[in-house]
Write a structure and sequence with these properties.
Strand content of chain B: 15-25%
CATH topology of the largest domain in chain B: Rossmann fold
Largest interface: A-B, 33 and 33 residues
Strand order of the largest sheet of chain A: 7-11-10-9-6-8
Number of helices of chain B: 10
Strand content of chain A: 35-45%
Number of domains of chain B: 2
Largest sheet of chain A: 6 strands, mixed
Distance between the termini of chain B: 39 Å
Shape of chain A: globular
Structural class of chain A: alpha+beta
Oligomer: heterodimer
Radius of gyration of chain B: 19 Å
Distance between the termini of chain A: 27 Å
CATH architecture of the largest domain in chain A: Roll
CATH class of the largest domain in chain B: Alpha Beta
CATH topology of the largest domain in chain A: Archaeosine Trna-guanine Transglycosylase, Chain: A, domain 4
Order of helices and strands of chain B: HEHEEHEHEHEHEEHHEHEEEEEHE
Helix content of chain B: 25-40%
Number of domains of chain A: 2
Shape of chain B: globular
CATH class of the largest domain in chain A: Mainly Beta
Number of helices of chain A: 4
Structural class of chain B: alpha/beta
Amino acid sequence: MRLMRRFLRDIGSKYTPSEVININNKRFTYTAKPPLELPEQVYTGTYLGQNRQRFEPSSILLQMLAQEPETHKVYVDRDTSWLFVVGKDIFDENILDRSDGVRLGGYCLVMFGEHCIGYGRYETSLDLRVVKNLFDLGDFLRREQA
Amino acid sequence: MSGREWFIERYMALGSMLSGDEKTPKAIRINPLKTTSTELIDILSWQGVKLEKIPFLDYGYKVIESPFSLGASIEYLLGLYSLQETASQYPTQALAPSPTDRVLDMASAPGGKTTQAAAYMQNKGVLVAIDINRDRLYATENNVERCGVTNTSIHHLDALSIPDKPAFSKILLDAPCSGNYTTDSHWFKKRIEEDIERNAELQKRLLVKAINLLESGGTLVYSTCSLEPEENELNIQWLLENHKVELEQLDGPGSPALTTIFDATLDDQISYCRRFWPDQTGTQGFFVAKVVKQ
């Protein structure tokens, strides 16, 4: 819970899952109880993310956080979105809009319209301000290839 | 026995005019958990994608033209749609799971029908998805996450090992089968008659398990992407003869299933099932039966 809580705080979220279940180091909230007891569960209900070196949020959690007005967000266009989902960082000049709370060194959701396509850290790199890509939805394709 | 000629002659003996060269066009299924047909079609059309509504499917569209891979777009990654072959969208639609159902998907990987069922259930009720193959089950997990599904419990499990208990109101058994040549160019080289017999035996065991897990009055949809009658009509005939079940009439695509197989005459009810001959439906080969437990 510690890594997830830290992530939620850093992104500006007030979300607190009522019950968290750990399956193979993945975190879920329990919203799907099978009508009979079954072994070898690998996934259940709402998938929140998993702990690796840091907490990696699921796309489901990211979409939930995108609905919260308080979370830190930057907005980008389709071309920049595509570059982001193939793993690139976002240059400051390509940010169309940003919410309150986006600050240097802090985390922010990357938004394409109303959809969240990942998140990153707003930082300075080689004298340029960028949103450093920490997770993007292209991960689905990378998982398929793996 | 095996080989292209043997299979084509076999299909001819069943009344088909298959050439063995039929292919199935790409299709997508819109995810109503995340978008609407109107919204998604507008977005994709703006990017040069030409789609055509598949008349017998609720959310299915044939891909006429696309300037990019539809399996790698932002909208795909957002879970607004899935790639799913036309015929394979029909079984879940025929099952019509509702938000109050307890649904079992008995062979769920890679998860296309699982996410489709969750969409019909509006992410409510309970959907249990199992599969015996752990590697393929990762795809189910990814698809469930990508499509925003939250009512599903996924288990790495052999369906045959589940204790008999009538716990489910609806079951989807898209059974492991011999497949068909329209989606696999090497299919004719790979398949032999013994595969069909072996698959048919496994399918019978899975059918019995499904019936034992289904509550009285509950519905089972059984489907395969095989054209072989042993895996389809003959299995359902066997089920009718050995278990207290009835068949429900299916309308829509394909043709009524066969009631005369080579020299055998089957129960008239078998014609309630649907058989997809690729040359007639423009899809892959498929068979769908809707079974109600008494």
